[in-house]
Amino acid sequence: MKNKSNLLSLSVLLGGLLFTFLFWQERLALNLLIYSIYLLAITFINPDVVKSNKLKIYGLAHLLAAVLVVVNNSDLSVATYYISLLLFIGFSHNQQIRTIFTAFLASILQMITVPFNAIRHLSKISIGNFNLKPVFKLIKYIFIPVIAVIFFACLYSAANNVFAHYAESVLTNIGQFFENILHFFFKDLSIGRIMHFCFGLALTGGLLLAFFDKSLEKAELTCKEQLVRIRRKLGQKTIWYNIVETFSGNLLTRKMALKTEYIVGIISFVALNLLLLLLNAIDITTLWFGYKPSGNFSGELHQGTNTLIFSIVMAMAVILYFFRGNLNFYRKSKTLRVLAFTWMIQNFILIISVFIRDGYYIEFHGLTHKRIGVLVFAILCIIGLATVYLKVAKQKTIFYLFKVNGNIWFALLLAFSTINWDVLIVKYNLNHVDAVAIDPYYLTSLSEKTLPFLDKNRSKIHPSTNNDSEVAKVDRPEETLMRKLDQRIGYFKERYKKSDWLSWNLQDWNTAEYFGLNK
């Protein structure tokens, strides 16, 4: 046990050193992949971590996310990297967790409790007959007082300027004292570099040292995926039950309570189906076939899209409300299920209308991140409706929905990270510049990976007469756009020449190859 603690603590120390070597004054790229390989290796070497198939899948997913940062180097790929890392760490130290949401929370909890986890592991370190446990016993007695002094010193400094002046002087002198000692022994080191190492040490410790409290994992184990009928005992009443009983009298104690809920559900779904049928009929006749843009075309399409998506989400919430409990087992609930399934089908038709609206928007105004986001959200709504159908048909719980949808969302996040969206947007818009009212300011503001294609198609980057963007209000807009593009190319060349191999990524390399910067 002591040898395990020694090796794990040594791994955290090496991880901190590796962190400051990889990321000090570097961009996130190849260094993230190297750091991830180290974390994966230590986690799988750790004998306390169970090497389940689930852990291997999430480990491979994180490795893929790290590779995508090197290949695409987009904000989405970096966000996917962090999410996949937290999920992998959450599942590695909490093997019985079933949903990505709980795994994410477990990782955050583990990161927050880094000091306690570190003290617990360091107290187990022993070198021969010497161990650090007595030292950390002393730290335990002074840790809370030090935190309390720092906290109240900050409060008093905010309340009194004279006190703040003295506190600042004390801190400055203490910092200068340690800096002089540091420069005396190590002239090339800086306080900033040491703080960076400490941050890397804390981060690596948070990722590798497991939190000893498994209450979150135990709490999730109580959640079931299959609905069961709950038979309430007469003497067993919840606080919520008593509050409702105060306003409803003996309605809840009647045998007809479930039937009442069933009748309310029937009336609600009949009314909602008729309402949505009218909306779908209008969309099919006016939008699906023979649509001709007129008037405020952009506002007409944009206005309804967000509202429709919100209505679809609320529709799923209504279905989950009525099929949350014993109504699933009511012997006459077949009619209610048919009405709910009909409403799901109608909401699916509504999603098709969202796709068509967004398709028209893209056809006439080009691709943007927001319009792609609408398409992605519509896809998520389709998946949500499909899983809600399974929940109602198979009598599943809401926990089942979280589990299934969480895994699907994470898989889609990885899939979408494989696409170079900025380049796709620029290529599509400039290839359809004759038919699309593009916003050249938007195109020239995208990431540096688009610079080769923009430079190659300078003649196509001009204000459109159909575009109401700010570019039309600028004097000599084409010259302004070209000057902005030249400035961005100059900034890239200057940055790339200063980049180290740790900041290498494929997109920067391709851009530098186009401008002849690679040697």
UniProtKB/TrEMBL annotation:
One Pfam family, please name it. Answer: DUF4153
Q: Which UniProt keywords apply?
A: Membrane, Transmembrane, Transmembrane helix
Family matches, as InterPro entries: DUF4153
Top-level taxon in the UniProt lineage: Bacteria
Name the residues that span the membrane. Answer: 7-24, 30-50, 62-91, 97-118, 138-159, 194-212, 262-291, 303-323, 335-356, 372-392, 404-421
Supply the name of the protein. Uncharacterized protein
Q: Which organism does this record belong to?
A: Pedobacter ginsenosidimutans
